[in-house]
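Appendix C reproduces, verbatim, an entry submitted by the partner laboratory led by Prof. M.T., so that reviewers can inspect both the input and the predicted structure.
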Amino acid sequence: QVQLVESGGGLVQPGGSLRLSCAVSGSFFSIYAMGWYRQAPGNQRELVAVITSGGNTNYADSVKGRFTISRDNAKNTVFLQMNSLEPEDTAVYYCHVVLRALGDYWGRGTQVTVSS
């Protein structure tokens, strides 16, 4: 059984930083893509950032230059460094992975609130 455990969410003031982590555990062959999505109240879930097994990255326009996605393949962990946070970044952030032969898996989500 595959599990995704997210951590690092919380309350931060505008302009502040947070770092999200997502560790993947269980029985699987390998991880293709790892990424982060977010969903704010009343909105659809949207892609924030994704990183492939080869290290290629893609970001939503709204976070380019402020967020950085990275991964530690040895620890099956993906990170999202979020700087210069804005109130509009407030949302539940979900970890997402694509596993070889098993497909997509989602974490339970971690709340990020940007407020003064």
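The mean pLDDT is 96. Additional entries are available on request from the coordinating office.
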